[in-house]
Specification:
The strands form three sheets. An eight-stranded mixed beta sheet has the order 1-10-11-12-13-14-15-16, with helices on one face. Helix content is about 15%, strand content about 20%. The chain has a single domain, classed as Ribonuclease Z/Hydroxyacylglutathione hydrolase-like (Metallo-beta-lactamase, Chain A).
Length: about 325
């Protein structure tokens, strides 16, 4: 049964009494690629294709600027790169899918540095993890954190953290929420999957996060997702989302990636479906994971946003390292 309640408020402890199914395969909405698709992909040059998409890395916008000063009721977001965001709201600092490493497994090198040096990150009050893929859950980054840092993670993923000495880990099912430092975090569905090793396909859950500090804006961090009906369901339960942090990259070729990642036009449509006023992009410009050129997601997202007729300034087309204040 998918959850719908509150797990903890303010004082987080490791959840030891919960039991989870052996697999979350029933949460999939599309079949994942199989052997035939992998053979076809290999004939096209594999995940990186034959066109060297990394040649555009120098054109990915990046800025170096200090974090903005905030008033007591202000909220800011900073795009660190890929799917990593530093969120400051309600007087707290939250990291979402933090990845500061120079590479991730698979010999995938980081082509644009993090938008903020680790030494300049304020004390972290909570960490959100969307799922266990290496480009979202990065062991070298996570293990830099104090072991008492509150961590909010998908169902069945707590053990990964407790084995590394973390003492304030809370697992959540979809539609469950927890409160840390007065900020409410709700784990919400996405169209994705999980895997970290050879034998753990879909053994842990995946999803996104709804974030709200008292009196603050309503934020949505989508994590990683294909396009589908779950965005509308999130919007129905959380009307009035002020800002959606939405993945726009790692989508080519569509016949292979469509079950896991939305393309830029779908990301814009997902923003409409979820009812968000603004969209901030992510999941592009840092690692080459798939065949599209590195800067193509940004161009296509801008074009799709124009077609909606929405105010241009409501697309937060951030450079890596850029902050915006709500």
């Amino acid at each position: 049964m998918v959850g719908g309640g509150s797990i903890r408020s303010d004082m987080l402890t490791i959840m030891t009494a919960r039991s989870w199914p052996r697999t979350f395969n029933d949460r999939l909405t599309q079949p994942l690629p199989g052997p035939r698709e992998f053979v076809r992909l290999s004939r096209q040059g594999g995940f990186r294709g034959r066109e060297h998409p990394e040649r555009q890395a120098a054109d990915v916008p990046r800025v170096t600027q200090p974090l903005p000063a905030l008033g007591p009721e202000q909220t800011s977001i900073t795009w660190v790169g890929h799917a990593s965001y530093l969120i400051r709201t309600g007087g707290r600092t939250v990291l979402a899918d933090p990845v500061w490493s120079e590479s991730i497994p698979g010999r995938i090198q980081r082509l644009t540095p993090p938008g903020i040096d680790w030494a300049d990150v304020p004390p972290v009050d909570a960490v959100l993890i969307s799922h266990n893929h290496y480009d979202h859950l990065d062991s070298p980054t996570v293990t830099r954190l104090p072991r008492e840092t509150p961590l909010l993670v998908p169902a069945a993923l707590a053990r990964w953290f407790t084995r590394r000495g973390f003492t304030a880990v809370t697992e959540l099912d979809w539609w469950e929420h927890a409160t840390v430092g007065g900020i409410r975090f709700e784990f919400v569905p996405s169209h994705h999957w999980s895997r970290r090793g050879l034998l753990d396909l879909n053994r842990t859950l995946w999803g996104g996060w709804i974030i709200r500090a008292p009196g603050g804006p309503l934020l949505y961090f989508a994590g990683d997702s294909a396009y589908g009906e779950r965005f509308a369901a999130i919007g129905a339960r959380h009307p009035g989302i002020d800002l959606a942090m939405m993945p726009i990259g790692a989508y080519a070729p569509r016949w292979f990636m469509g079950s896991a990642h939305q393309d830029p036009a779908e990301a814009v449509q997902a923003t409409l479906d979820v009812g968000a006023t603004r969209m901030a992009w992510m999941h592009w410009g840092t690692f080459v994971l798939t065949q599209e050129p590195m800067t193509e997601p940004a161009r296509l997202a801008r074009e799709a946003w124009v077609r909606t007729g929405r105010p241009p300034e409501h697309l937060w087309d951030l450079a890596i390292g850029e902050s915006r204040i709500l």
